[in-house]
Amino acid sequence: MKNNNNKIINSWCMYDWANSAFATTVMAAVLPIFFRRVGMASVSAVHQGFATAMWGYTSAVTMLIVAVLSLILGPSADLFPRKKKFLGFFLITGVISTFLLGITGQGQWLIISLLFILGSTGFSGSEIFYDSILPHIADKSTLNKVSTRGYAAGYIGGGILLLINVLMIAKMPMQSVGQDNTLVPVLAMRLSFVSVAVWWALFSIPLFKNVPEPDIVNFARTDKNLIENSISQLKQTFKEIKQYKQIFRFLIAFWIYNDGIGTVIKMATAFGDEIGIKTIDLVGALLLTQAVAAPFTILFGKIADRIGTKKSILITLAVYSGISISAFFMHTAVHFYALAFTVGIVQGGAQALSRSFFGSIIPREKSSEFFTFYHISGKFAGVAGPAIFGLVSQITGSGRAGILSLVLFFTAGAFVLSCVKEPEKTVLTAEK
Fold this sequence. Notes:
77% of the residues lie in helices and 1% in strands.
């Protein structure tokens, strides 16, 4: 495979374009509101904090299941030439589950939760194998460029579909839901879920058509089943990863700060809905985030090439801390838009540079195996953040304390990251 083959790289980036629609429209913008106002219609009107907490708990359970599945399935991708096949399986799971969200209704919060869990499993599971292809299509000198290009494509693609869905929500008629007959664009929200399923499936085709299955350096046939293979591989990986001190430290840092980033993504609209910001403003602000994130993701890639990837990530974490503190005092839609703009400046850079930083310090032939730990770190982080947010919101009766608690994740993560050595142009060697 030629590292600089633009057709292959562009086709790989198109999957970011495709699946980011789930992250924007479903995970971040529409489903949190749909869950609170439609799924929990009889509860949210009376107990605002509790409805927000339930969404936090749902997100936490989702990430726990995804993390466990990653533990089981991820390590096997390096043992067999199956990266694209595994990716395809999770893609189909996510697409079907997202489509079915379009036929849910009032009071069906449990069904909505189950479909969100399945959809998130498809989304996150496919990303493990998608990211593991990256070191096979880009060399060490182009990892930042290709990784940030993928994230930028994701923000543009996810943003375009979100814009279409914002227009639907603004123009289509409202329906009354719940005991207080709150007007909610239920039909538009349902159609937005269907649109994500179609978009995700359609724009995934270039990856499967044009990106070859990466060569498997350590391919070996075995009579063990999938779970036995994975457990055996995990034991071996744990032994190996202890030898790579920088990788281990980075995974700890990533686990901590990505917890905060993921919680901001998952809980922002639920928190905004709780404090009375209108649906169109909540979704519109997320659209603003997408529009800002695309160019700033590319910019952060260039900044990282100039001042270093680690320093660039630390800058984004400092900004995130300021966002969390400012959100505690938020009351108006204007304030929500301002914070959405600021999130857009750093969100893509933090995620893309974390991916490329990690990709630059791992052995290429063990990309899936080590990227599994990278994703598992993020997924288990996704359990703690929303759960703590939900618990704090339930105890205090408000999401304000929950959003403020995220400062701890950003500052602690930054401290651990500061202890990680900046990677060289070549992969770090094991430190005995």
